[in-house]
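User: Please run a holo structure prediction.
Assistant: Happy to. Please share the sequence and the ligand.
User: Here you go; the ligand is fe (ii) ion.
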Amino acid sequence: MRPTKELVIEHEAVLTVLQILDEISLRITEGNDININDLETLLDVMKVFVDRCHHGKEEKILFTALESAGIPREGGPVGVMLYEHDNGRRYISGMREAFERVKEGDKQAFKTFAANASDYTALMYAHIDKENNILYQMAETHLSDPMKIKLAQDFSSLQARETGNGSYEKYFKVIEQLKANYLKG
Ligand SMILES: [Fe+2]
Ligand SMILES: [Fe+2]
């Protein structure tokens, strides 16, 4: 499989996570009860699967390969992607902090959670679109075949390291389960 294809497949799963998060935020705004365990699961998916694993593959492996192919890390499209990853991390921290306050009984913190969630999903929809349509195309054009083979190998070691053995596939299943519970059709 082309290494960018693997990242595009992960994007599909991330898009589902964003839709679930939007649905949960809507339920919060409408004053409905929220399943705390599902929120905990979703936060883990965002931190481990989306950030450490997917963004890890991009930052530590793909962007480094692009740099060695002459595409600078600072400025340009890679610089923008790095900046957006950092913003995403801030929103995930914001959601996590609000969630901890909710667990301590502060129901008002749900609003802070929903505000961070909405900023996060808006950022990530646009981010994924740019990567699928611009950055990954650049990678396919600029990276040599041996580099692509090395990329695929490095991706697989990183995902085992960041998610734990066998857990990578489990994340896809967890996302599908949440999708079945929260999204219709
Ligand atoms: Fe990214
Ligand atoms: Fe990405």
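The two ends are 29 Å apart (CA to CA).
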